[in-house]
Structures are given as structure tokens and as C-alpha cells.
Amino acid sequence: MVIKLLGAVLVIGSATVIGFSMATKYAKRPETLRALQAALQMLESEIAFSMSTLPQAFDRISHSFGHSIGKLFEYTSHLIKQRTGITAKEAWMKAIYEYNNILHLEKQDKDILMAFGNALGRLDKESQIKNIHLACSKLSLEEKKAEDLKYKYVRMYKGLGVLGGDLIVLLLM
Amino acid sequence: MVITNEKLIQIKRKPITDMFFQNISKDITGILKKIPSSALGCIEEIRLKTNKPLMIYDGSTGWFVTEKGKLTQEDTTGYIVTQEAINKTIELISNSSVYAIQEELKNGFVTIEGGHRVGVTGKVVVSNGNIISIKDIAGMNIRISKQIIGAADSVMKYIVAGTHKVANTLIISPPQCGKTTMLRDIARQLSYGDANTERTGIKVGIVDERSEIAACFKGVAQNDVGPRTDVLDACPKALGMIMMIRSMSPEVLITDEIGTNQDISALKQVLNAGVKVIASIHGYSREDAIRRPIFKSMLHERFFEKIIVLGKSKGTGTVEQVWDEN
């Protein structure tokens, strides 16, 4: 009986964890998208007013932003600074790929980032800023959609995890 | 006239290093690295043009470069440069920040680390008669920096009397005859001083409007212009000369290619402040300079104590004549 009980707790526990981790993905995405927009706005002011070079600007952004976003900018800057002939676009793509797991982004979000990366560092000031605005407005649209999805799915997955675990226990009893 | 036809002897060219290659697109560097090092050491210019073969110049002759790094006169076998390679090179030169070198690109060139100069051509954007920027860059000329240490050896004895008495000197030279090279080495030698002749080092100020004398990268001189030398980089001469004497109290002020009335009046102010001047102008001889109204009064009033005329009679940088105006 004790073993059965223990097993039941284990099953419910792990099902809950699975549910919560599914929910995290939906909960974190709008946050990341918001932070990305803030980071790009910071990049805009670095380019428009401070005239800093891209690695300098990216370093400053990485200091101001937390875990995942910070890493994305830091790694890109690191790659450019090595001066191995890698372009900003290539460095940016590599960084997105490298930190894919901790970014909590969907494919369409990464597409926006990659389109933004295409023009990174190779345009004049005005076009560079336009490119940032474009990426920001696209990210903002995705953020709204992600917010809706979050509202819909976070509670569902959390509930589904717990209830699913209960169901399995009941069936096995 | 004091001397005629003296030829400088030492020529030192900066080697092409990996640091230099970091500025160029990978496919082009791959080819350049295949060129035998003896030939690589002689390169003065690397030319990239969209959809045209890669070219190098060794000072006198232009060569096309094949994919295997062979030099040829046959344009059909040259490696064709793509627009992508040029875009990448511009990106690498600017450290992935083309927007940050926009201002410099307006002048048609940027100076990169090591003092090398990259000239660009493409579509020029003009607004109200002013050049806003150059976009769609389709041609580049990467000129390898070379500093000729000792270029001024033969003239130092005319410029400096005793331990530190510098004469106001005007260098007259046709284009491509080593006038900037000469000025650079004069700055270096004045700044270091010379233990053998007991010449003491003195404070030198360079107003480097076209970034050619000191070849500054981010404000730091890439050529050796001496330990007591201050450089105002990319600064208009007339403004820079006044700025320099106010801010850095140089004993000698050096500037290239005097040509406008503003330059002359600034020059007079500097001379009145008791600062010595070494400057250069375009010209073929002393008579040639006197014929031009703008310099006529300067020379008649004996603002300059020594006049050095450069030419090509025994190769670039030949000191053709030295005039003592006193």
C-alpha cells in the first residue's frame, strides 16, 4: 500500500512538472519578446546618439539585460570582436542558434530576429534605425499574440499536468 | 641655392600582417595569402571592383591576381570580385558598424588600423550641394601604408641649426614626389632629436587634414611621428593651426598642402605667435610658386627661411633644390 501510494505521488508529481514546464514556455515568451524590444530600442539610441560601434553597443546591452537576452548580445559581440572575418549577420545567427534553448522563442520570432540580422552592421545610420523599428514592430505584434496564448494555455497546461497525473493514477489503481 | 639632386636611400615598408587581413573579406584574403611573400611585400595597392578581376599594384605595374594567387597581365584569368566580397570588406573595416564610419566615408576614404587607407567609390548621395554619404560601394582601393624612415636625413641639416633652432621651411613638390613622406620624417626626426648631432627633441604639432602625415586610426597616430608629437587628425588646416598653438603649445607646427587664403592667414598668425612652421605646397619650383599670387607675398616677405624643392629626377623623393631665403 505504501509503495502504491509512493508510486501515485511520483506519477502525479512528474505529470505536474511536465505540465508546468509546458506552461513556462508560454509564460516566458511574451516576457522575452518584450525584453528584446527594449534591447533593440537601446541599440537604436546607441547607434543614433552615442555612435558606438556594434560590439560596444552589444556589450552595453548585454550588461543591462538579464540572463538569456544578455547572453545573446554578449556572444554576438564576442564573435565579432575576435575578427576572424565573421560578419555581424553571421555572428548574430550563430548566437541565436547557440542560445535557442534558453530564449523561449517560437520559429516566427526567430525569423524576425534573423531578418533583423540580415542588415545588421552593414547599413548607414538611418537605414539601420529603420531596420530596428521594423523588427520592433514585428516583435510587438508577436508579443500580443503570445500574450493571448499565454492567457489561454498557461492555466490549461498547469491544470492538465495535475489532472493528467491523477487520471493515470486512477487508471492504474 | 645650397644643394642639388640628393637622393634619399632608406625605404621601409610596413609588412602586411594578419591584422591587416582581418579587414578584408575571407575569399579575397584566401587568394592574397597565396601570393609569394616576396611579391606580397611590394604591394602598394589592392584594388577591388564589383564583377572585375582582383588587382594589385606594386608601385609601377598593375597585376591581375588569379584564384591561385598568381600574378598575371591577362585580365580574363583574374579572380572576379563579387559585390558580396566588397560589402563584407566594408563591414569588416568598420568593425560591423558601417553607420559609424559614415562621416569618414563622405571624404571618400577611411584610415584603418596600421595606417592603411581605404578609398571607396560608389553612388554618392548629395543634398543641398553637400555630400551626405557614399552608398552602393562598388570599388575599393586599399593603399598599404609605408613610412620611409630617414626620408628627411638629407634635409635636416638645413632645417635645424645648432641644437634646436628650427627654420621656417616650405616644401615645394609636384604630386607623387614624396612631400608628405618628407614632412612625416621631418616631424619624426624633430620630435626624437638626434644624439649624434646633439640636436634635442622638440614639441611638434601636426595638423593632419587628410590624415596622411600621421595616418591616425581612432585618433592614434599609426605612423611613427615621434614621442613629442601631437596630431590633430582630419582637422581643417586653418582652424587646426590656431587650435593647436592654443591647446598644445608646440614649438614647431607641421601641415600639408597649404592652398587657400584662410590657410595663409592662419599661417601668419602662427608665425606671429613665435611658433615655427614647416609646410608644403604643390609646385614644381620656387619660381613656379612665386608666380602664384597667393604665395607671392609670403615668399617676398620672407616668411620662410628655407625652401626645399622635391622632384623625381633621381627617383621619387629626390631633393632637387634647397634655397636659403636669408
Structure characterization notes:
The complex is a heterodimer of chains A (173) and B (326). Helix content of chain A is 87%, strand content 0%. By secondary structure, chain A is an all-alpha fold. Chain A contains seven helices and no strands. Chain B folds into two domains: 126 residues, Beta-Lactamase, CATH 3.30.450; 178 residues, P-loop containing nucleotide triphosphate hydrolases (Rossmann fold). An eight-stranded mixed beta sheet of chain B has the order 1-19-18-11-17-16-12-15, sandwiched between helices. In chain B, strands 5-4-3-2-8-7-6 form a seven-stranded antiparallel beta sheet. In chain B, strands 9-10 form a two-stranded antiparallel ribbon. Chain B contains eleven helices and 19 strands. With 326 residues, chain B is of the alpha/beta class. In chain B, a hairpin with a 5-residue loop joins strand 6 and strand 7.
Work out the count of structural domains of chain B. Answer: 2
Give the strand tally of chain B. Answer: 19
The SS-based structural class of chain B is: alpha/beta
Largest interface: A-B, 20 and 19 residues
Mean pLDDT of chain B: 86
What does the overall shape of chain B look like? globular
Query: Uncertain segments of chain B of ≥5 residues (pLDDT<50)?
Result: 1-10
CATH architecture of the largest domain in chain B: 3-Layer(aba) Sandwich
Give the strand content of chain A: under 5%
Q: Total strand count of chain A, please?
A: 0
Average pLDDT value of chain A?
Answer: 88
The CA-CA distance between the termini of chain A, in Å, is 11 Å
| Helix content bin of chain B | 25-40%
The CATH homologous superfamily of the largest domain in chain B is termed: P-loop containing nucleotide triphosphate hydrolases
